[in-house]
């Protein structure tokens, strides 16, 4: 199956959202997606652009995407974070994941960043093997730490001024 990799457009966001939902189901978090198409459109194409998105298109349908955004490392300097690299189930094994990752790496090189960072679930061995085969270090001695929206609110309520 033929496909092209290109920068996403605002009009792609409904299909990007569908890919995000597909990933959430795969990761056993089907109900965790809170973001809307409007959020994606505003955050990716509004006045305060928050991310860069690349999509894979085949027969006028999006079959994959990679979404990145800037971060800063106090040790390395400018870096980007790969939030998600998604390939729809029917296209896995087609080389599409490699093509999307290639685009992210080329984008990072154009920006002159010092690192690309991302997470992978510890049970997703096919993804881990894929990333390792591409030369990525899977750092199993680091734990992901998050403070969700409710946690932020609770934290702020408990700050003693």
How would you describe the overall organization of this protein?
- The protein has one domain: 3-Layer(aba) Sandwich (Aminopeptidase).
- The longest helix has 16 residues, at 96-111.
- It has five helices and five strands, in the order E-H-H-E-E-E-H-E-H-H.
- It is an alpha+beta fold.
- Helix 1 (13-26) packs across helix 2.
- The model has no long low-confidence stretch (mean pLDDT 95).
- It has a five-stranded mixed β-sheet.
- The protein is globular, with a radius of gyration of 17 Å.
- It is 35% helix and 24% strand.
- First-residue to last-residue Cα separation: 60 Å
- The residue ranges in which pLDDT falls below 50 over 5 or more consecutive positions are none
Topology, number of strands = 5
Strand order of the largest sheet: 1-2-3-4-5
How many structurally independent domains? Answer: 1
Which CATH C-level class is it?
A: Alpha Beta
CATH fold-type name: Aminopeptidase
Radius of gyration: 17 Å
Number of helices: 5
Mean pLDDT: 95
Q: What's the CATH architecture?
A: 3-Layer(aba) Sandwich
Strand residues, percent:
15-25%
* Biggest β-sheet strands, sense, barrel: 5 strands, mixed
The CATH superfamily title: Gcn5-related N-acetyltransferase (GNAT)
